[in-house]
């Protein structure tokens, strides 16, 4: 017969029926059931088919070690694959059998809501058996904060259903992993939502109990073969009888408590005690066990009609969490298994059954037979004793190798029932002693956990990573900007008119800057105030050029190098006062530059009196550039004298712009006359709109990062991180002029004369002009010497770092890093493209206004 | 996740910190006086012991102060943390006494 519900008994609440659906059919269960107990109660033998062989599989265990019965849960929340005993029955549950490999649906599915919480305690006890409760009680009596977590819905060692006085208890709470210094992550399954607890405990006590181990025999995967302790649990806790005619098959002294069975109307029809030489040889049946073949000490055979085989192969301490944090094992002869050897971190203890406090057993892993190809070791991976022996025959000796050859232990259950068995089969097959090598190491998480649960409420793009927006963001949205991510920043990439595409919009924006005036939101530039009497000396050590002799009111461009001499970041330094600078960094490099300043000040030069403060978000920066920029700014309204003599290039002036206090800088990243207006961030939107109001008659256009990239590349200005990749010296970039070797030491200086930094054949920045004026080379394109791509390895000259269509020039161009590039200027090389090669000329990297006539308007 | 005792803020989770490599590798007083080999040694070569190791950490998401730590690389145990410039612990005392 199949399983059935008993008239009485169990911890289920019979006054609260629950309706659920499995494989498209409706069933009834009770509050307190698991999906496994409810399916057994309804006589469902086959939960799923095995993943490789397609064999029918039923419930083997009553807990987290389940290697056989896997389901997909569709409602009320989606879970791709989960063991049936781990699913608490709730009203409206819809599930179906799922061989041990999950599948994600094509459509977005509903995940169970979850939150994360933190807790600090003196003692965390994992497991609520008698020993765990005792430890918790003692710790609480000392006045400690004590947390006890139990993965089952009720405390194992307490009939009261609650924990000791003063102990906080979480049930349905599974420790996913134990990490360094008492850090433990616990998944707490609730009816409405899950909670992921991040716990830091001064002491962690593992009272994780033990897993009963199976014994392999022919067709031991047939539904109706169950672990002995699970049979008892289904009767006692769920009022479910999994089978009425039982064969007890055991290798240790624990046997079914017969009074449970008598009361349930079941009987033990045969006992096969391996210590007396009896064993189960195999099973028969259609979809579940109907007959059991026994073999005796003299080889005699017997067959009994039975519907359940209760297997008691002994116990393996549950040491997965212990081992993953570095605990070691030793073999225990009496228990015929592995127990903790006392090593591991000092804050970790193992107690009770997990520490080896278990009844003695004998080493009996499978019933010997000629054919071992249906003696299943790992049900979820469909691997048998024959598969293990084949791996050993193939020359494998380590269980780690056998694991990877057979995949045993790699499924969801992580080999909780198969790991030690596999190790011992390998040990015996090799003629080694029992316990010569133990099971492979299971890694966290202890049970599957969804990414959604780990994420908790931190879902969606806003919470995945902080989103930073310029003070003028709303104005950009209103103007229809298309945004791109630059680090954490949202920056307008271009501002399309109507249904204009990016190419057309960028061409229009570039021409606006070259012919009239354009406006760029440059607020995202990193800005750091460097203050203190030693600030000038400090900056001299950080930049390749001298910053200490910069006049107050002036601006200087500078490069920072890594200690290896490679370009690290660039920006300008503005001297606000004798002891005060404002330095700018690339948008993406701001944090790294501040980190670097602080590191050197604290660790190498603590005697320097310098303070650094990030002011990136304190300032809105509006860059007005183009031949009409001066006229636009004058129209916006300012008290500053904008004429070149009064306000020359690379200086700044404090004044009033559009009625608010502003600092205006004469710097240019486009080559055009430019004014960068710095105002407090809350004044940014006002000034931004004032520029457009005044600029309307001059045809002022907003432009985005894409046009900015084209305009700067036309001038041959590099972007650190795009044209450089951490392997370029200033000289490689043609910027040797910015290195001042006479000023004393600066970071990276010594590396500039390392043999590798001065060798010939280094990659150098060059311009690239395709012969075909319409050919836009993809960034990253490899450049080669000949027009034919020979047999690999093809010698590479370099690669394209930036590539654009220039509206001002009327053709495409690129920047590239090319071996010995400066000597190749004027020569033709070739770009390797998907369909062949294309000839390109190597040029100087400055394409537009090489004499710099336009920056003063 | 390690529990790291910042000398200024106390014990905090590892995610608040950033690792800074081997401690007490001083920037040479006069880099230009070094041979290429000596400079390369400073630039690229660091110790990688099994056992106690002097390291630099920074409480990046906290007080942003750099400090030193003595950590056992085989157990991850942080034996001690202390401010830059201090050396209260004799490394030799710990060599060979830590559990592997």
Summarize the entry for a quick read.
The complex is a heterodimer of chains A (857) and B (100). By secondary structure, chain A is of the alpha+beta class.
Task: Set out the fold topology.
The complex is a heterodimer of chains A (857) and B (100).
Chain A (H helix, E strand, L loop, with lengths): L3 E2 L7 E10 L2 E7 L3 H7 L6 E2 L6 E2 L12 E6 L3 E5 L10 E4 L16 E13 L3 H12 L4 E4 L17 E4 L2 E7 L3 E7 L4 E13 L3 E3 L12 E3 H11 L1 E2 L3 E6 L7 H7 L2 E7 L5 E6 L6 E5 L5 E5 L2 E5 L2 E3 L2 H5 L4 E4 L4 E4 L7 E3 L25 E3 L4 E2 H9 L5 H8 L12 H11 L21 H5 L5 H4 L3 E2 L3 H6 L3 E5 L2 E6 L7 H14 L2 E4 L4 E6 L3 H8 L12 E7 L5 E11 L2 E6 L4 H14 L7 E4 L4 E7 L3 H8 L15 E6 L2 E6 L8 E7 L3 H12 L5 E2 L2 H10 L40 H4 L4 E8 L11 E3 L13 E8 L6 E8 L8 E6 L2 E8 L14
Parallel strand pairs in A: 2-8, 9-10, 9-14, 10-11, 14-27, 16-23, 18-19, 18-23, 30-32, 33-43
Antiparallel strand pairs in A: 1-17, 2-3, 4-5, 6-7, 6-8, 12-13, 13-14, 15-24, 20-21, 21-22, 25-26, 28-29, 31-32, 33-39, 34-37, 34-38, 35-36, 36-37, 39-42, 40-41, 41-42, 44-47, 44-49, 45-46, 45-48, 46-47, 48-49
Chain B lengths: L2 E4 L3 E4 L4 E5 L13 H9 L7 E7 L7 E7 L5 E6 L7 H4 L6
Antiparallel strand pairs in B: 1-2, 3-4, 4-5, 5-6
Structure description:
The complex is a heterodimer of chains A (857) and B (100). With 857 residues, chain A is an alpha+beta fold. In chain A, 18% of the residues lie in helices and 31% in strands. Chain A contains 18 helices and 49 strands. In chain A, strands 9, 10, 11, 12, 13, 14 and 27 form a 7-stranded mixed β-sheet that branches. A 6-stranded mixed β-sheet of chain A has the order 40-41-42-39-33-43. In chain A, α6 packs across α8 and α15 packs across α16. The mean pLDDT of chain A is 94. Chain B is built from 2 helices and 6 strands, in the order βββαβββα. The longest helix of chain B is centred in the middle third of the chain and has 9 residues. In chain B, a hairpin with a 5-residue loop joins β5 and β6. By secondary structure, chain B is mainly beta. At the A-B interface, α14 of A face α1 of B.
């Amino acid at each position: 017969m199949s399983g059935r519900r008993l008239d009485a008994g169990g911890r289920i609440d019979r006054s609260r029926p629950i309706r659920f659906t499995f494989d498209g059919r409706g069933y009834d269960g009770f509050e307190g059931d698991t999906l496994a107990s409810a399916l057994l109660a309804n006589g469902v033998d086959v939960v799923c088919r095995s993943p490789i062989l397609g064999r029918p599989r039923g419930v083997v265990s009553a807990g987290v070690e389940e290697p056989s019965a896997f389901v997909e849960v569709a409602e009320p929340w989606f879970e791709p694959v989960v063991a049936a005993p781990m699913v608490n029955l709730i009203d409206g549950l819809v599930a179906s059998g799922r061989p041990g490999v999950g599948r994600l649906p094509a459509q977005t599915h509903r995940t169970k809501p979850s939150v994360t919480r933190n807790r600090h305690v003196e003692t965390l006890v994992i497991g609520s058996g008698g020993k765990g409760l005792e430890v918790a009680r003692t710790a609480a009596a000392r006045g400690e904060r004590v947390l006890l977590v139990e993965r089952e819905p009720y405390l194992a060692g307490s009939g009261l259903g609650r924990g000791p006085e003063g102990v906080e208890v979480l049930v349905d709470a599974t420790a996913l992993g134990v990490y360094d210094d008492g850090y433990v992550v616990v998944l707490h399954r609730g009816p409405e939502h899950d909670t992921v607890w991040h716990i830091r405990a001064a002491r962690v006590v593992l009272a994780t109990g033990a897993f009963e181990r199976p014994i392999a025999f022919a067709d031991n995967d047939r539904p109706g073969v169950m672990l002995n302790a699970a049979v008892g649990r289904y009767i006692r806790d769920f009022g479910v009888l999994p089978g009425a005619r039982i064969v007890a098959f055991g290798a240790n002294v624990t046997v079914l408590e017969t009074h449970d069975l008598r009361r349930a109307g079941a009987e033990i029809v045969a006992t096969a005690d391996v210590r007396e030489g009896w064993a189960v040889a195999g099973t028969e049946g259609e979809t579940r066990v109907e007959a059991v073949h026994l073999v005796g000490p003299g080889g005699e055979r017997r067959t009994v009609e039975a519907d359940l085989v209760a297997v008691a192969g002994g116990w393996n301490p549950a040491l997965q969490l212990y081992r993953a944090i570095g605990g070691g094992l030793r073999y225990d002869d009496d228990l015929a298994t592995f127990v903790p050897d006392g090593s591991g971190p000092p804050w970790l203890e193992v107690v009770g059954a997990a520490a080896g406090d278990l009844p003695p057993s004998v080493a009996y892993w499978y019933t010997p037979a000629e054919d071992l190809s249906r003696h299943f070791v790992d049900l979820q991976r469909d691997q048998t004793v024959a598969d293990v022996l084949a791996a050993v025959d193939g020359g494998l000796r380590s269980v780690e190798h056998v694991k990877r050859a057979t995949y045993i232990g790699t499924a969801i259950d992580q080999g909780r029932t198969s790991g030690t068995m596999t190790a011992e089969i390998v040990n015996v097959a090799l003629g080694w002693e029992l316990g010569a090598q133990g099971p492979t190491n299971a890694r966290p998480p202890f049970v599957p956990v969804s990414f959604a649960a780990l994420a908790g409420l931190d879902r969606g793009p806003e919470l995945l990573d902080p989103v930073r927006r310029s003070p003028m963001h709303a104005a950009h949205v209103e103007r229809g900007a298309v945004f791109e991510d630059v680090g954490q920043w949202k920056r307008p990439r271009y501002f399309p008119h109507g249904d204009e595409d990016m190419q057309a919009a960028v061409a229009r924006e570039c021409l606006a800057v070259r012919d009239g005036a354009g406006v760029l939101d440059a607020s995202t530039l990193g800005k750091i105030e460097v203050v203190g009497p030693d600030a000038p000396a400090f900056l001299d050590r950080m930049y390749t050029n001298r910053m200490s002799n910069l006049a107050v009111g002036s601006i200087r461009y500078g490069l920072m190098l890594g200690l290896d001499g490679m370009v690290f970041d660039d920006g300008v330094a503005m001297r606000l006062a004798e002891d005060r600078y404002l330095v700018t960094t690339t948008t993406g490099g701001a944090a790294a530059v501040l980190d670097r300043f602080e590191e050197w000040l604290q660790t190498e030069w603590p005697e320097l009196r310098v303070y650094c403060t990030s002011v990136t978000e304190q300032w809105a920066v509006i860059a007005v550039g183009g031949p009409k920029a001066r006229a636009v700014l004058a129209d916006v309204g300012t008290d500053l004298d904008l004429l070149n003599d009064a306000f020359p290039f690379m200086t700044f002036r404090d004044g009033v712009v559009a009625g608010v206090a502003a600092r205006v800088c004469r710097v240019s990243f486009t080559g055009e006359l430019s004014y960068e207006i710095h105002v407090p961030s809350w004044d940014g939107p006002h000034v931004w709109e004032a520029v457009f109001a005044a600029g309307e008659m001059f045809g002022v256009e907003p432009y985005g990062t894409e046009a900015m990239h084209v305009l700067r590349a036309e001038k041959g200005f590099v972007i650190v991180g795009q044209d450089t990749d951490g392997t370029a010296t200033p000289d490689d970039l043609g910027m040797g002029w910015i290195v001042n070797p006479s000023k004393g030491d600066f970071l990276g200086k010594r590396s500039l004369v390392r043999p590798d930094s001065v060798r010939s054949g280094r990659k150098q920045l060059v311009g690239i002009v395709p012969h075909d004026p319409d050919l836009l080379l993809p960034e990253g394109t490899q450049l080669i010497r000949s027009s034919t791509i020979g047999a690999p390895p093809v010698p590479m000259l370099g690669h394209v770092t930036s590539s654009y269509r220039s509206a001002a020039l009327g053709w495409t161009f690129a920047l590239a890093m090319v071996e010995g590039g400066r000597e190749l200027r004027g020569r033709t090389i070739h770009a390797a493209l998907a369909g062949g090669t294309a000839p390109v000329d190597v040029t100087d990297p400055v394409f537009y206004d090489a004499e710099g006539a336009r920056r003063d308007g | 996740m390690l529990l790291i005792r910042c000398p200024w803020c106390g014990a905090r989770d590892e995610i608040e910190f950033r690792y800074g490599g081997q401690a007490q590798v001083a920037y040479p007083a006069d880099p230009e006086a070094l041979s290429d080999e000596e400079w390369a040694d400073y630039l690229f070569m660091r110790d990688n012991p099994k056992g106690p190791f002097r390291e630099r950490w920074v409480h990046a998401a906290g007080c942003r102060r750099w400090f030193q730590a003595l950590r056992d690389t085989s157990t991850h145990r942080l034996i001690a943390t202390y401010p830059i410039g201090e050396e209260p612990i004799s490394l030799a005392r710990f060599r060979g006494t830590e559990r592997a």
